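Re-run with default settings, no changes from the original entry. Doing this only to confirm the output is reproducible before filing.
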Amino acid sequence: MLSLRFLSPAIAAVALLASVATNASAQSFSEPQRNEIQKIVRDYLLSNPEVLEEVSAELSKRQAQAEAAKQVAAVKQHADIIFNSPRGVVVGNPKGDVNFVEFFDYNCGYCKRAMTDMFELMKADPKLRVVLKEFPVLGQGSVEAAQVAIAVRMQDPSGKKYLDFHQKLLGGRGQADGARALAAAKEAGLDMARLEKDMKSSEVRDTLTENLKIAEEMGLNGTPSYVIGDQVVVGAIGLSGLKEKIATARCGKPSC
């Protein structure tokens, strides 16, 4: 919040100037008066530039709060699809008490490191319900890899082979694309003939459409992104940060 010491006549002039700018028809001031107000404001800001930093910080804070509120509302509105859509891959405890949904891209370097965090969390927290959603935003290779991943999910309801495939592809070196994804699927023991058939089905397209739409509704603009309880997290925040979000979802505070 801005300090009361800045509520000077010059700041009052800012408000008046804004009123003039947004309501030109009011003609509250003559041209010389408007010029004088502008000079007062300019001189004040040049003498006290730190005011701009405080205003900028407050604006950023309010924008972040508004975005967070919008994201919470989006999670509430689309909760069933986010947490329970059959197009998501559920690993960890399917009856867990905290939902941990990750949107990822197979060509995301941060996602590779975040995968290690996910496995650590699953190992340490048997009550965590993890849902994986393909979110290919880094080019055609990512889209191709996601298409293979969806076909893997279609023939593996348990999620075990999917998780093996996921680890092989995301943990591998080089650029992920269709060819690398197919190789990872074969290594994970998938039925390749069925896989190639499933890749041509409408389910692949519909899954990507659903994931991209939900991500857009929540304002996700990068990977990895998470929904943990009703909290939306954009970007990699590390193992300790994820643990705090899980604890907040579980018991309302950063540590239980």
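The first helix runs from residue 9 to 22. The chain has a mean pLDDT of 87.
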